[in-house]
Amino acid sequence: MKFAVIVFPGSNCDVDMYHAIKDELGEEVEYVWHDADNLDEFDGILLPGGFSYGDYLRSGAIARFSNVMKTIMKAAEEEKPILGVCNGFQILLEAGLLPGAMRRNNSLKFICRPVELRVENHETMFTSAYEKGEIITIPIAHGEGNYYCDEETLNKLIANRQIVFRYHNENPNGSLGDIAGIINEKGNVLGMMPHPERAVDELLGSADGLKLFQSIVKYWREAHVVNA
Amino acid sequence: MYKVKVYVTLRESVLDPQGTAVKGALHSLSYHEVQDVRIGKFMELIIEKSERNIDELVCEMCEKLLANTVIEDYRYEIEEVVVQ
Q: To probe the interface with B, which of A62, A69, A92, A150 has the most B CB atoms within 10 Å?
């Protein structure tokens, strides 16, 4: 399986993402600059964390209009797996590929530490390697991860099982319904604030993030490889 | 030319953590009269006249980029200016 790590001016978790895929997962991966207009050769698209365009105006607001986003919108329709982490999640929200928006953390502080998550939906292409309700430890690193949507949207997210990860025990940023990660209705676009790419080896403190990437590969192999 | 002033604030229904912190600070300075503080953004745009209706144009820019209408409200003032 071949992944693209999209690089915007100001992305800073692109190297972590690349390392997770190449060295820990053992799959093909390439960096793709934000002005690219074709992603056909890639099977999965990863939007890394960071501060695209310096977070000017709003996190993700400017990156959302970069050239590569047109082809990402197309890939979303084609039901390719698309994962947005942290700033990548914020970009997906601004692009309207996922519903809702991010507010400043309720503490107003930038928070960088491991948190516990509960896998709310383990029946997605991103979470099938996890157990039902599994508690995992993944680091967060953000100042604007306080997820918000209106009540109607929240009810829809719950009804469609689109809430994939919730913060467990303690909500670090004030997000509505303890939401840490959501998926689109079709189930191929996942956005999450915690960084699974920073939890792919016990040496890093946790390897709980690796199963997320393994799930994507498993899904892709089953769909595309004969005798998988 | 037009000079357009755009104001973007969090919607009434959305808690503004920055505004709440500033309100707390004002209270600690004994300004207990302060009931509420909302923090927002102010943008000044200089726009050339075109065949597009200026009101429509600014509204479109706000909806597309300048505000995120999921959590933010916007308003704007348009002033016609003469360029030297």
A: A150
